Amino acid sequence: MESFIDRVLISEDEIRAKVRELGAKITEDYRGKPLLLVGILKGSMVFMADLMRAIKTNCKIDFMSVSSYGAGTQTSGQVRIILDLNKPIKDFDILIVEDILDSGVTLSYIKKLLLPRGPRSIRICTLLDKPERRKSDIVADYYGFTIPDAFVVGYGLDYGEDYRNLPYIGILKEEAINN
Ligand code: IMP
Ligand code: MG
Fold first, then answer.
1. Closest C-alpha residue for ligand 1 atom 15
2. What is the pLDDT of residues 111-158, one digit of tens each?
3. Separation between Cα atoms, residue 55 and residue 50, nearest integer Å
4. Which atom of ligand 1 is nearest to the CA of 158?
5. Domain containing 88: what range?
6. Whether the Cβ atoms of residue 86 and residue 63 lie closer than 8 Å to each other
7. What is the DSSP secondary structure assignment for residue 173, as one 8-state letter?
């Protein structure tokens, strides 16, 4: 599997340190508040599992699943809900947990969908931010790393559902794409 990786962009150690830092910030900001972490499946699951344990104030978790990519490396621009939250969110401060903010289409869609449900607040925490490819006017309130415009996999991120179990973030080799 690892022969398909061109290079490691962010190591396990770097991820661990950053998640700890994000968790500390979130802990301070949400202490005593009704925090609900909303993970976007499937990409955020590894990050979510680590981040929630770095948060030292009480929180609940829930998940949504949306799809905007076929099997390729470009967003289709169309977002579909595959799994919605099944409880009201009006009593909660929502923190959406996402693997990567790329074009921004997915997160702006999710934010627009959740806002009318009247939560106390909504913010976004993304592990990776790829600002060069932004199409929607959306920013992350918390982010781990700003990365260049390359297709990355690992730590939950996939290419055609593969590579999610790599413990680091790596850049895929050209020859691993579309074959
Ligand atoms: P956006 O709607 O373009 O911001 O895309 C967000 C979603 O696209 C993320 O949740 C990822 O699932 C996927 N994605 C975007 N860039 C990458 C990448 O470099 N590697 C793997 N998945 C990506
Ligand atoms: Mg994905």
1. 102
2. 999 999 999 999 999 999 999 989 998 999 999 999 999 999 999 999
3. 9
4. 21
5. 12-147
6. no
7. P
